[in-house]
């Protein structure tokens, strides 16, 4: 009888182990599968120009996803990132006449200010992150449109160089995204702030009992998320050579959440996977590019992204159940 019980228990353990491995590494398998499909069926996919284009396009998504990973790691979420991108592009146009550095500073400070508002609502007033950041999502886009009601071309040599320039053949946008990825990874893994963030995400009441500065950490998390979204907005503006608060950043929050969750960061908090987030952002970009290159209509791209989101949420649910 003991032997009979041991067999199904072993099989269940094997299934559980396989499921965990798929949840942990499935995003890398997805990226590999898309690469193979494109190499076999997409003309000129292996060209240097194509890889450059894909890398440039994924950079803003990755930068926003880094901030989203911090928010989700603290058992929160930041729905305002798309609106922050719109706000940053408006501020760029307003302050570019004072010089590019003033415009860049205004844009990043604007994003950080939205982060302060989000963090204060969550940390001091006790508003749920989804509600607080939803309010700032609506308000941020509204403020952006008040500041700049319509599309405006950006004519500045510095912004043009930022959007299309490169160093040793590597675009500035890719170098900036890489540097920010390494910085966030270092903060999460090697600093006291990173350890406090993960502890708060794992159990906020326990973190308070342990004497951790919960409010300060939460505010800094959302300030970082806002600042990173603003940087992504600046880079997108530089690449497009235009400020368009009406459409810039639209649905970016969904792309960022998908990249983070597909990458293995659980919605329940307490863990941040930076490598997985990078792979998740690449997966979204490859999926979109694959459908576009094969002349499928935009509706199919949206459906495919919706399927990825559903799978990501399902995977996250399985992690929470365990």
TrEMBL record:
Protein location: Cell membrane
Keywords: Cell membrane, Membrane, Transmembrane, Transmembrane helix
GO molecular function: transmembrane transporter activity
CDD domains to which the protein is assigned, alphabetical: TM_PBP1_transp_AraH_like (cd06579)
Pfam family, one: BPD_transp_2
Annotated signal peptide: none
Bilayer topology annotation: Multi-pass membrane protein
Any GO CC annotation of this UniProt entry: plasma membrane
Coiled coil: none
PANTHER family: ABC TRANSPORTER PERMEASE PROTEIN YPHD-RELATED-RELATED, GALACTOFURANOSE TRANSPORTER PERMEASE PROTEIN YTFT
Protein name: ABC transporter permease
Species annotation: Streptomyces kanamyceticus
């Amino acid at each position: 009888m003991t032997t009979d019980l041991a067999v199904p228990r072993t099989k269940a353990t094997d299934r559980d182990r396989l499921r965990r491995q798929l949840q942990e590494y499935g995003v890398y398998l997805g990226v590999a599968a898309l690469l193979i499909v494109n190499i076999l069926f997409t003309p000129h996919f292996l060209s240097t120009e194509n890889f450059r284009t894909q890398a440039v396009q994924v950079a803003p998504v990755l930068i926003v996803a880094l901030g989203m990973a911090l928010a989700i790691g603290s058992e929160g979420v930041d729905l305002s990132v798309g609106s922050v991108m719109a706000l940053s592009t408006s501020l760029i146009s307003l302050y570019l006449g004072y010089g590019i550095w003033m415009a860049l500073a205004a844009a990043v400070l604007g994003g950080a200010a939205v982060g302060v508002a989000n963090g204060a609502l969550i940390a001091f007033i006790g508003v749920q992150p989804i509600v607080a950041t939803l309010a700032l999502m609506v308000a941020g886009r509204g403020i952006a449109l008040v500041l700049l009601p319509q599309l405006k071309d950006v004519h500045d040599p510095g912004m043009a160089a930022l959007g299309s320039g490169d160093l040793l053949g590597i675009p500035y946008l890719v170098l900036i995204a890489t540097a920010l990825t390494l910085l966030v990874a270092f903060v999460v893994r090697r600093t006291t702030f990173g350890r406090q963030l993960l502890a708060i995400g794992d159990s906020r009441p326990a973190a308070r009992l342990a004497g951790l500065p919960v409010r300060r950490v939460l505010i800094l998390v959302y300030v970082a998320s806002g600042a990173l979204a603003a940087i992504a907005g600046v880079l997108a503006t530089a690449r497009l050579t235009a400020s368009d608060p009406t459409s810039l950043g639209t649905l970016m929050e969904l792309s960022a959440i998908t990249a983070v969750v597909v990458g293995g960061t659980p919605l329940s908090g307490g863990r941040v996977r930076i490598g997985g987030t990078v792979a998740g952002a690449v997966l979204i970009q490859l999926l979109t590019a694959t459908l576009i290159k094969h002349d499928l209509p935009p509706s199919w791209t949206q459906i495919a992204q919706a399927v990825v989101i559903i799978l990501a949420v399902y995977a996250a649910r399985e992690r929470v159940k365990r």
